[in-house]
């Protein structure tokens, strides 16, 4: 399932089957002819940002800003680790139920983006939870050996 956001205003879901059934032919580099409900549509990709999965597309002389999120992107956003939004994250919550194996930080400690904060064991796998941003640890709500549920508060930033 893909989430499509157009001009940061309109958001809708598109499944893989709908994409596969799209009647589109590339007429030249980044230009497409699309048939939809017996209507002819001309589309051109004007600009792409592959890292952010953002595109600027011209459809029948109208230009649209389009952002596409796949299932993984949506899960990352739900966990609070979205690119761009990460600078606003003040709480780290458990992405899944598990056991706290190790805590690598202490209250008041300054951390950098991607520094390891703790290790959460879930389904016999060790998951390192890294800092989504630079900051100072305000509080640690768990201790080594604690069992946590999904969405349990683990760490707060100042």
Quick overview:
With 158 residues, the chain is mainly β. It is 9% helix and 53% strand.
Describe this structure in words.
With 158 residues, this protein is mainly beta. The protein folds into two domains: 2-69, no CATH class; 82-157, RNA polymerase II/Efflux pump adaptor protein, barrel-sandwich hybrid domain (OB fold (Dihydrolipoamide Acetyltransferase, E2P), Beta Barrel). It contains two helices and 15 strands. The longest helix is centred in the middle third of the chain and has 9 residues, at 71-79. The two termini are 36 Å apart. The model has no long low-confidence stretch (mean pLDDT 86).
Order of helices and strands: EEHEEEEEHEEEEEEEE
The best one-word shape is: elongated
| Overall CATH architecture of the largest domain | Beta Barrel
Helix percent reads under 10%
The termini sit apart by: 36 Å
Please identify the structural class as seen in this structure: mainly beta
Can you say what the CATH homologous superfamily of the largest domain is? RNA polymerase II/Efflux pump adaptor protein, barrel-sandwich hybrid domain
The total count of strands amounts to 15
| Beta content | over 45%
Radius of gyration, whole Å: 21 Å
- Unreliable spans are none
CATH class of the largest domain: Mainly Beta
Number of helices: 2
Mean pLDDT: 86
The total tally of domains equals: 2
Please render the helix and strand layout as text.
Layout: E1 2-6, E2 10-14, H1 16-20, E3 23-28, E4 31-36, E5 39-49, E6 54-59, E7 62-69, H2 71-79, E8 91-93, E9 98-103, E10 110-111, E11 116-122, E12 125-130, E13 135-140, E14 147-148, E15 153-157
Antiparallel strand pairs: 1-2, 1-7, 3-4, 4-5, 5-6, 6-7, 8-15, 9-11, 9-14, 10-13, 11-12, 13-15
